[in-house]
Amino acid sequence: MAKTSLDKSKIKILLLEGVHQSAVDNFLNAGYTNIEHLTTSLDEASLVDKIRDVHFLGIRSRTQLNERVFAAAEKLNAVGCFCIGTNQVDLNAALSRGIPVFNAPYSNTRSVAELVLAEAIMLLRGIPEKNARAHQGGWLKSAKASHEARGKTLGIVGYGNIGAQLSVLAESLGFNVIFYDVVTKLGMGNANQVASLEELLARADVVSLHVPELPSTKWMIAKDQLALMKPSGILINASRGSVVVIEDLAEALAAGRLYGAAIDVFPVEPKGNDEEFVSPLRGLPNVILTPHIGGSTLEAQENIGIEVSEKMVTYSDNGTTVTAVNFPEVALPAHPDKHRVLHIHDNVPGVLSEINRVLSESGINISGQYLQTNEKVGYVVIDVDKAYGEQALEALRKVEHTLRVRVLYSETNFEG
Ligand SMILES: NC(=O)c1ccc[n+]([C@@H]2O[C@H](COP(=O)([O-])OP(=O)(O)OC[C@H]3O[C@@H](n4cnc5c(N)ncnc54)[C@H](O)[C@@H]3O)[C@@H](O)[C@H]2O)c1
Ligand SMILES: O=C(O)CC[C@@H](O)C(=O)O
């Protein structure tokens, strides 16, 4: 029988888009030495080529993982998104191949909230235009249309981790906070939920968007919604570029129907720092344009590096999938004296009983079993006596509807 074990030093990890060094250090400390660390993303063709022998892949927001890429990823065990958003990944394509996807749901929350708050103050004071004039040798000393944040209404659309964090910081500065969310939530401090997006847009002086990219949030702010905002209103978008119809925003700003905007995310973003940034918002006076850096602080990137690599190492060493965004979540204890078999299968009736039948007929004693399913996939983890690791792997490979099987030996990590 061919040996199926794979030493940790042979487990290939590919990290793209300048994932922080803290992730590399974490993998190395855990014994994973086969790491390729690139500062750029890869286009589809290069990725399809490169991913064939990759076991763990780390990306940020730019790398697109679609069906074609997953089809080529024969050895891929897990994906780590070193960011919050996972819209760049076809989560179903990953799931149907038994590949969990992890992200960092909190690590850059504070960075985004701080930037948004700073932008709100700058825009309320008309700083972008005053700053630009001064750079050109001008002197725009005037209080016209300049306002304090105190007493103004901040409307937050999407009151999740970032929205709620922003809410706390904004109240401490004197903003009245209202928010709109599809889920009923208790506001932090004195923040109040409003019943509709329309009400929020009409009441707020500053509107800040913090929704994920979903079919329901796509182009949610267009001409009709912008028309509901006050002419003195300010729009901030640090969520996803697909949430705002950028041409409609540019038109409203140019026509003076909106006072200012700060935009960090765009429907089309340059693929790298060498590519020209093209946008109808370029050149407009009270507009702050930033290159998708809401979460790009050294603090956040270091924390993200640690958080996501820890999840990938834990999955690789122990099988735990807690916080995976697309996968049944199983929290597993250590398995010092047992071999552990990870079996991922289509979630159809009868697979678990077939697994148990096969193990029992092979004379394999089960010392622990954990199961979790979602609508597509079942994930069963079976601890077996040390004598049976490879035997169990061989037996379980033959079970119909198997997507992937791995054995984690008590000391070293092996793949099937
Ligand atoms: N600019 C950046 O660098 C940067 C950094 C981090 C995150 N982000 C983006 O910000 C988004 C939000 O991050 P988060 O951590 O706060 O996410 P989150 O999941 O904690 O919160 C999102 C909130 O939006 C709500 N929501 C969903 N659909 C909605 C709708 N149609 N209308 C109103 N509310 C809706 C959800 O109920 C949830 O409360 C991320 O998905 C990511 O795309 C951008
Ligand atoms: O770091 C990135 O590339 C994306 C950051 C942000 O959009 C996120 O989703 O966390």
TrEMBL record:
It catalyses: (2R)-3-phosphoglycerate + NAD(+) = 3-phosphooxypyruvate + NADH + H(+); (R)-2-hydroxyglutarate + NAD(+) = 2-oxoglutarate + NADH + H(+). Keywords: Amino-acid biosynthesis, NAD, Oxidoreductase, Serine biosynthesis. The keyword Plastid does not apply. Its EC number is 1.1.1.399, 1.1.1.95. InterPro entries: ACT-like_dom_sf, ACT_dom, AHAS_small-like_ACT, D-2-hydroxyacid_DH, D-isomer_2_OHA_DH_cat_dom, D-isomer_DH_CS, D-isomer_DH_CS1, D-isomer_DH_NAD-bd. Pfam families: 2-Hacid_dh (PF00389), 2-Hacid_dh_C (PF02826), ACT_AHAS_ss (PF22629). Residues 340-410 form the ACT domain. GO terms for molecular function: phosphoglycerate dehydrogenase activity. Pathway: Amino-acid biosynthesis; L-serine biosynthesis; L-serine from 3-phospho-D-glycerate: step 1/3. CDD domains: ACT_3PGDH (cd04901), PGDH_3 (cd12176). The keyword NADP does not apply. It is an enzyme of class 1 (oxidoreductase). Belongs to the D-isomer specific 2-hydroxyacid dehydrogenase family. Catalyzes the reversible oxidation of 3-phospho-D-glycerate to 3-phosphonooxypyruvate, the first step of the phosphorylated L-serine biosynthesis pathway. Also catalyzes the reversible oxidation of 2-hydroxyglutarate to 2-oxoglutarate. This is D-3-phosphoglycerate dehydrogenase. It comes from Billgrantia bachuensis. The lineage of its organism: Bacteria, Pseudomonadati, Pseudomonadota, Gammaproteobacteria, Oceanospirillales.
